[in-house]
């Protein structure tokens, strides 16, 4: 993978979940249990109905939270605090990844559909705290979730990101469509590639990929 594909990049945007830690850490398994319980408690439904609603909201709105806000006027802050109160003790430090990201030229930021406090906890558990210049959660996107283009536009405007000189690393291929349309270099980070004109590169090893850029 030639470095020249990234020679113009001066802002490096990284998703958090299943991107800056490996999918086998299975943090989202814990989050999903808490999301389902939250939907059950808030809406007074059984687990099967909560799971159905979550699936529908993910497909239509991008996240469970966005659906709950749109359909049920749910307050996002208590939701985010509750669903992200998970155990991170099994996450391993990633000194090689930290070193390679730190050597990327320009500005390095994290942008997640989770909350900023949760993101900072995960980064600390991975030994990646201090590597990034900024960390943005869904609250910084006015609670618009990825893949909504408004979410990217809001966060990038706050940070001053120029998409023409930026790259986006994401595990969810849906979340690379808007960055690609904005002119960003896109990298799909996942065990298996997914076809799509909006994906420039794929890697199943973020550490090795970033090392080749430094």
Walkthrough of the structure:
36% of the residues are buried. The chain has helices at 27-43, 47-61, 64-72, 76-83, 95-102, 116-125, 149-159, 177-182, 206-211, and strands at 11-14, 107-111, 134-136, 166-170, 185-189, 201-203. Strands 3-2-1-4-5-6 form a 6-stranded parallel β-sheet, with helices on one face. It is of the alpha/beta class and 214 residues long. Strand 4 (166-170), helix 8 and strand 5 (185-189) form a beta-alpha-beta unit. It is globular and about 55 Å long. It is built from 9 helices and 6 strands, in the order βαααααβαβαβαββα. Helices cover 42% and strands 12% of the residues. Helix 1 crosses helix 2 (47-61) and helix 2 (47-61) packs across helix 3. The protein folds into 2 domains: 3-21 and 92-211, 3-Layer(aba) Sandwich (Rossmann fold); 27-83, DNA polymerase, domain 1, CATH 1.10.150.450. Keywords: Hydrolase. Pfam families: Hydrolase. It comes from Actibacterium mucosum KCTC 23349. This is HAD family hydrolase. GO terms for molecular function: hydrolase activity.
- How much of the sequence lies in strands comes to 5-15%
CATH topology-level name of the largest domain: Rossmann fold
Helix content: 40-55%
Give the spatial strand order of the biggest sheet: 3-2-1-4-5-6
Spatial gap, N to C terminus: 12 Å
